[in-house]
Structures
1.
Amino acid sequence: MSGIPEPAEFRAEARHWLTGVAKERAAHQEWGHGDDSVAVFENRTDAEERAQTDRIRDWERLRYDQGWGALDWPPEYGGRELPSYYEQLYRAEEASFDVPRRTEIFPVTQQLVAPAIRVWGTQEQKQRWLPPMLRTDELACQLFSETEAGSDLAAVRTRAVRDGDGWRLRGHKIWTSGARVATWGVAVCRTDSDVPKHAGITVFLVRMDAPGVTVRPIRQMTGGSSFNEVYLDDVLVPDTDRLGPVGEGWRVTLTVLAAERLDSGGLGLDNADRALDLARHLPRPLTGGERQQAADLFVRALVQRLIGLRVTAALAAGREPGAEASVGKLHATATMRATTDLVQQLLGPRLAADTGEWGTFAWTEHLLGAPGYRIAGGSDEIQHTILAERVLRLPKEPKGASS
């Protein structure tokens, strides 16, 4: 491909640039020292979340301004128009350097929302939203889930009603990551109740500081509040902030969800590696069962990485991954469960008592957070259905059929 560096050349170039702007990370953190957090979901106060967001934003802006952000985007959006998998090649190099770890709102903005705007936005919307989102001057969260809808996103009840040249939004969204620091919220709303539910949906971008928008943190079992509920009380949204045609919101939503599953295959790998380090440093010999569990987790993590390579290969071939993304999501949640099982076996009561001992009680944040990913990004049941219908070509189950 003309003008596109070979992967090895690109990685060498990326490493050279990173060496000039960041410190190289130690190959292995010394066991028993440093941060022992293995939290699955962020556990920060409002002030801590904003400060961390600012640190990450500074790094992402530097990347973008020096030609290392938006790698697969056209030059008019600040990119280099490289193949999609070059972003993963870059991230592999960046992992060796001490740079801020992106919190969830950054990939949501750059890898979920921005691509949906690229597909569904008008030319004016693309020019207005894409450069600041790719540079992270503006961040976007997902206003998707609702308490009444559960995993059935097409059952949303948040209403959008015409009001002159705009729309009035009224409803309640829940489980929203990053709502406290987001500039925009991508809201899935019902605009027509007299048609089949998938046909009566429209998507809007809502200013999170608009009158009528209220963000309330949700306190989790871990004690943190990384999720929020968002109330929309007669929020006025101009029609120019509608994404996609009226009534076509389900298709817009699917564009975002497809990107979300592509981004979920690497979930939990850092914690799996940390659990295996725990097994290596346990101050007693492992039992036969513990050795078996550790070996099983090692293999699962290896397979998960291989699935990630298959996703990369599909992107390199110019094909949007389908089955690979769903298999990767399912395997990631299974790896997280296996990580929990091994740590529980290794630590026993030390896991439940906050004695201050490094690398023990900290694992409760993994144990309490990991089950959430069976739902996040498309539930395990949804992924099974996708594979059954699109890969195995099994017929859809008739409505009302018992399980």
Note: The chain is about 40% helix and 15% strand.
2.
Amino acid sequence: MTAHTSDIEKEALASGPPRKAIIGPVAANVAFVMELTLVPLLLPAIQLHFDLSISELAWVFNSYGIAVAVGVLLGGWCGDAFNTRKVFGYGVAFFAAGSLIVAAADSFEMLIAGRILQGLGGGIFAPLVPLLLTRALPQRPGRALIVWGSISGYLAAFAPLFYGGFLGGDGWKTAFLFIAIIAAIALLVLNGSPSSRDPEPYTGPPADYSALFQARDLWVTFLYVFCTYGSITYYLFRLPVWLSENEVEAASIGFVLSIMWLTFSCLSTLLRNMVDSPHLGAIMFAAPLLIVAGFPLLYLGDNFLLLIASAVLVGSGLACSNAPSTQLILRFAPKGMSAVSTSLDITFARFGGIAAVALLAETEFAYAAVAIGLSCLAAAVCAFTANKGLADEG
């Protein structure tokens, strides 16, 4: 390292993290979250536009998820092995290009191709977002993660309301175009910052992946993510189905889901100064309790206020589990394997959701409630174990 480079880095540290180094990853994550929030609402319009069968429509949804699963592992490995910011940029570019292809699709095959490219790009850059943010704000990593989550949650909450109120018919094309534009802006913002470059690469011995499997507390946190996100994903799946069966209008369903995302964002904002403190363990422990408390309220009656209370509880559980679990994963990750650890974070979250929905989709509520309760109990035990490991480490 030259003296000139050292002076630049000292100046950057003195002036605080470059805003563009934070805004770029957050904007890209906003596009990623909007896809997650909007696509379930877009599927009926896509089915009508292309005259798709249910099985074909399932491929529109699942092709993206499969590509994300592949991209996450690829992005995690490349993020540790190569320049993290460049790998992130390639992922955002693929995601934007795939979104544009979907928006311009005039055939089912073109639609699937766009969804695969979009999912691959999203999988590549998504696990690198917390890594870039914590590097940009190393003194307060928890604050960076909580701001990231709350901003994404606010925009995700309003996206369904905006789509339902102003777009319809071929408006699904406009939605994908908008997602592509946000991703492109994120890429331009990050690349336009001369000070938003990778820190010094890890120069120790080559990554020993056996150390990854020996990190007990890391895998305990992965199990926590699997259980909490599995329960939340099942909630997101079951809520619209149950409301539709009870002839609740789509606009009301979107409103309840928006309340959940708004609760997540607001509570994340309130917790931003607590996730770097000894309260981390209590916050993580509260998450499964809040989640499991929200489920019975769905079935206690047709009172709309109970549905809102349920959404508030589950949204609060998501806020208490999101940034804290990511922070612990970064703390427990072996040296040189931060990116692959955050990619496994996303993988366990998705697998938890897939498992919960696959096993409980057609299960009666009484049995599903017991299963969710056991999952949340396991998450609570994992939270206690992981934070005990953090205390022993300190």
Note: The mean pLDDT is 77.
3.
Amino acid sequence: MSKRAEGMVLVINSGSSSIKYQLVDPDSGVVAAAGVVERIGEDDGGIEHRADGSTTERRERIADHAAGLRLIFDTFAATGHDLVREGVRAVGHRVVHGGEVFYRPTLIDDDVVAAISELAALAPLHNPANVAGIESARALLPGVPQVAVFDTAFFHGLPAAAKTYAIDAKVAAAHGIRKYGFHGTSHEYVSGCAADFLGRDPAELNQIVFHLGNGASASAIRGGRPIDTSMGLTPLEGLVMGTRSGDLDPGIVAHLARSAHLDIDAIDTLLNRDSGIKGLSGVNDFRELRRLIDGGDEAARLAYDVYIHRLRRYLGAYLIDLGGVDAITFTGGVGENSPQVRADALAGLGAFGIEVDPAANTAENRAARRISPPGAPVAVLVVPTNEELAIARAARHVVDG
């Protein structure tokens, strides 16, 4: 086996029309190769593969996820990592929804694949694609252990009062309706990194984590365990997101059905794909939103204000839930890269010991860092997330027993 592949974990995040992947050393965190297959099922599909400081691109029609995985493996072989011949220590798969069944990283067998498939009703856009990636990887690497790591696992043990919806209990039980939460791998990883950065035991800390990207979520973490999170039965609940509405009056669904004559699929598409920042401003990229705001676009300004309003509402709720906070951490594409969002989300909260140092907040820095003033009672941090490394370590842990 090549020294470059020995002990490494291949991490696969198989989405509805794309496959993201990394070959990573779970001990050092060094990424040997990474890339993405995009536009699966479309004529203009392709792969972008990065390894050894260079990028390989190839454009072609990719019929399905099996073809996408084969293209990934062919590209690995062409760039010096023949994964089929050399093997890897394990394959770690991101799986979005574990339901009540899966709440820890799990070694994959036929029964596990079947159970993940059965959970598709709870995540129809995600779990079928996750299964497609799993089945393809198992076929290509039949002798390599494969591990499923679930987005919902970190939030499995939420307190009953936090995870229970106030609907008919029998209906909820029959259909698996409860708050599951998502982005759990990121929230767990980032909260652990925040504790390490502060030199504190996680068991001593009250933390609020904002994972802000195209999808966005918040969590309240006490003593290393979450006590609440913003996403719910699905990733639609909670914060305003790139294309998702987040919280809204559930009566809106019935109103749209009666007044706009939309069927349930059209409403689902509206709330998941055509709402949020995009629905309010016409764009879902935060950089473009900022350019529109700077140009005086009132719709873009309103979209941003609604976004910040929702962030602050969850911050206030979690401050009360926790009874005070030691650290507030921002992560994700927006959380890590938008000083304006961080400053506005925490503006005017000095009475609560929460402040942002303008110079530290706007400094060019990609590492974990503190952006609160020296001596501030609450540490405000920016911590880059690394879900792939977390999945790789979880997979290695399962395989090594």
Note: The mean pLDDT is 95.
